[in-house]
Amino acid sequence: MDAGADIRRRELAAFLRSRRERIPPERVGLTRGRRRRTPGLRREEVAHLSSVGVTWYTWLEQARPIQVSAAVLDAIARVLLLDANERAHLFTLAGVADPAPDTESATVPAALRAMLRQLEPIPACVQNGRYDLLAYNRTYGRLLCDLDAIPAEDHNCMLLAFTHEQWRAALVDREETIRVMTANYRAHMAEHIAEPAWKHLLKRLQRESAEFRELWERHEVIRSGGNKVKRFRNEHVGLVHVEGTRLWLGPQQGSRLVAYVPADEESRERLEKLHALVTAEEAVGPRVGPGDGVGSGAGQWAP
To answer: Has residue 190 got a pLDDT over 90?
Structure first.
């Protein structure tokens, strides 16, 4: 027996268990229930979401000498929400070449968070292809609503545009904005159609917004909305005109840094005023809200 292969299988089994146990069931669209003893997902849940047999997946976590394909590993990596480093580690332990080594990562490095802070008073954030807000600076956190007061699981621009009253009111050209976002989401979902997180967001939008359901049924597809002047109505400083700029963070059009540069001098002054307001509040003391301490970007007042 190959001792090295045996060690890798045991390492792979331990790694899968550790990643599975860290994921709350709600994050992939499952209900927790009262009798759940597992800290994260159950084996059968990972198997079901990955479209593999429960017995086969159990053998994988038991370090049995079985063959695993790249397609199955890819499905498991997506269900377990592995970042780029974790995904590479998974494929290395399995001894299989990764067919998509540049898969989008959900991790926002500290250096990128520091960059967001340095861009102030320009509002800026990091989004993934699903419109999840992964991180944002203080000005962005108060541009359309008070993001720090919103639970981390709701930090998604599409969800907020359809369901959050203050965010909706801040979008001056909301009708066009939500049409483009819906068409863009449909276009990109074709590449992620089996992924639990994408399906969960779609189901939630369909359940909570009749407006979204109507737009979704149009089957419009748009790959990019382009950079153009946007209008936001902020409750503290009034109307601002900004030019949205996107900087892609990888070879695929997934995660991107989005910055809203003021389009005129009046908007610049108003964004500076908003930034001063947030800075003054920060000086009073740390804010406590539903998003504090969450790695997704909520409450990110520290660089």
So the answer is: no
